[in-house]
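Protein folding task:
====================
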Amino acid sequence: MVQVFTIFAFATTGGYSGTTHFNVKCPGAQDVQPVEPVFGYPFRLSAYPYKIPSCNSTPSNVTYLQGDFSSSAEFFVCVGVFGFLYCTATLILYLGYQNVYRQTTRGPIIDLLVTAAFAFLWLVCSSAWGKGLTDVKWATNPEHLVESCKEVCQAGEFPSMGRLNASVIFGFLNLILWAGNCWFIYKETPFHKDPNPPATMEEGGAPGP
């Protein structure tokens, strides 16, 4: 379950490509010229140019989307990829080397610490990417883009962000799943075991008459 949601988290972010739309209608002209700025992961928007048609004989104006939100997006994907790799490694360990895992108390303790660290990382990266996604939406909002050419530009369709919205949801679901796993791993550690188990019949001696 954790492995599947981890894949969904980084897969819905990495490789994303979207398009925002607005139209240019020059005074006296009957045709509308569409403008479709394209952007995508890692959301370094200043690297995506687009052309705004000119209403006179001058060449089209080359403009760039504004903003660099690559740090939060790449951090989110990085946590997802490393989380997937750790899930795969522990799955192999649980299925093929269970005796080695339970041979000492060190294995469960390390597993608990790493799982808790990933739960914390999911909290941080999901929050950061949620804020980054909000900024991406604002920077690619057609109504915001047409502010530089209000006289001739008209806002068009908003870019489809459903996939990115899902990535944030998967990020917080991973936080819940990884935090929940900490409890199950904790029960395998010596911290959960009773340090003074009740004496058995042999240990406590024969009962009195």
User: Anything to note?
Assistant: The helical segments are 2-11, 70-96, 98-103, 106-139, 142-145, 162-186, 201-204.
